[in-house]
Every structure is written in C-alpha cells, then in structure tokens.
Amino acid sequence: xxxxxxxxxxxxxxxxxxxxxxxxxxxxxxxxxxxxxxxxxxxxxxxxxxxxxxxxxxxxxxxxxxxxxxxxxxxxxxxxxxxxxxxxxxxxxxxxxxxxxxxxxxxxxxxxxxxxxxxxxxxxxxxxxxxxxxxxxxxxxxxx
Length: 144
Fold this sequence. Notes:
Elements: H1 14-40, H2 46-89, H3 99-105, H4 110-123, H5 127-133
Helix pairs in contact: 1-2, 2-3, 3-5
C-alpha cells in the first residue's frame, strides 16, 4: 500500500463519488423532463411523478448512507484517539477539540500527537492546519 501523506490521504471511490451521483442526477433530470412533457401534453402524471420521486429518494438514500457511515466512523475515531491520548498521558482529550480536529490528529504519530493536540486547542487549528503540521505522517488506510 502506498505511503500516505497530506497530498494523497483523501480517498475517492470513482464509482461512488462520480458514477452513482451522476446516474442519480441523470435520473432526476430525465424524470423532470418527462414530467414537464406530460404536463404540456395533458397526459396522466402518475408515472412521471413516481419516477421523479424515486430519483429524489435514491439521491437522499445515497447522501444519508454516506453521511451516516462517516458519522459512525467519526465516533469510532474519537474513541480511538481518546484512548490513545489516555494511554500516552493518563488523561482524556480536551473536550474543546472538535471532531474535525480529532479526525485530523489521527494522522499524527504518538511522538507528535500530544503536543499537536495541545496546539490544536490553544491555537484553534483547523483540521487542514493540523494535518500540515504533522512531520511524520501515520497513515489511516481504513477510513471509508
């Protein structure tokens, strides 16, 4: 597996991020066009409306499925990083840390982690700033 760093840590799944959403948006666009044509021709609207609603439901399901998976993963990362911080310092992570900051801290190796966590709180570092401050990147190859 390729060594992870700031430039390549973002994970894109082309069939999910591009193909699925493109197809769902194409379905919605086609269904909208079909509905407009049916309205103009004074045809029955039942099937065109159902098709449009189906496209909207699929879009919502795809969006929420992704959001829920990331939220669950963020909770797991919070617990893992809290445990790691506790194992190193004997204390829990500062409650002022936002989830985005904690998610960014997971890339820091143990010898940089504690100091960077303190800096994140004191300087209110963004997740990007935290990632850029990491000297020796610790890859996370399990994030969805």
